[in-house]
Amino acid sequence: MSLRRDAILREMGLAPVWRLRGRQAQPEPEPVLQPAAPTPASGPAQGRVRSDLRDGAGDLPQPVSTRSHTDVGDGVMGLGWDALEARIRGCEACGLCRRRKQAVPGVGDRQADWLFVGEGPGAEEDERGEPFVGQAGRLLDAMLASIDLKRGEDVYIANAVKCRPPNNRTPEAAELAACFPYLQRQIALIQPRLIVALGRPAAQALLNEEVRIAAARGKLHSHGGIPVVVTYHPAYLLRNLQDKAKAWDDLCFARRSMRGLKHA
After folding, report:
1. pLDDT band (50, 70, 90) for residue 75
2. Which domain holds residue 202?
3. What CATH number does residue 47 fall under?
4. Do 216 and 233 form a contact (C-beta atoms < 8 A)?
5. How many structural domains does the chain have?
6. What Rg do the C-alpha atoms of the chain give, in angstroms?
7. Considering the chain, what is the average pLDDT of its residues?
8. Quick check: 131 and 159 in contact, CB under 8 A?
């Protein structure tokens, strides 16, 4: 492992985790590709999601209803980038618009091979209008660097919802549904080779099913024919340091998958 990557992993909190377990430095993991059955290309599944399916323990379960995005979707799918971002910034399709300072469309290379999808903006993102700029954003940048990626260079970063949920709570099903046409249009414009879903809400929005991160990791899922890798949200990793090593495994799996896609 290079000195540069070792420093990045220390920044992610991985090196202390490995030392505490008494392990010597290990070569980069070689994940086994386990394709999952294709899933529908639309959003959250019906029913209720149990609290144990969320990334963080102790969260209350959220109702999940059938996606209905006619009001937004009918006018979005033909938009180009500038019109799409203007529509997002002026959107009033759900109640999140009432307490936002600004909507956060996304940022990065609009022809990227890599698309990273998070949950929703936090307080700093709401202030600045860019996703992943707070402490979780700094960790995401370190995660990207660990696999030789950089924000804005062949990478686009977006969220499942474009406005900050109050108190940074998990987005509700209706909010995910209202915002999904925007994410869907971004995917259609970018045409990424690979999508990385950061956390349960993003994974559930993309895969249209209940998702447990522990069970979804290490497999290639599908959104509209585009491979999807599921891993933990950086904000979750900041609260659960023991799972950073698992996120590193997921990043290695994503990079290996991308290499396979480019050489297919």
Report:
1. confident
2. 34-262
3. 3.40.470.10
4. no
5. 1
6. 18
7. 81
8. yes
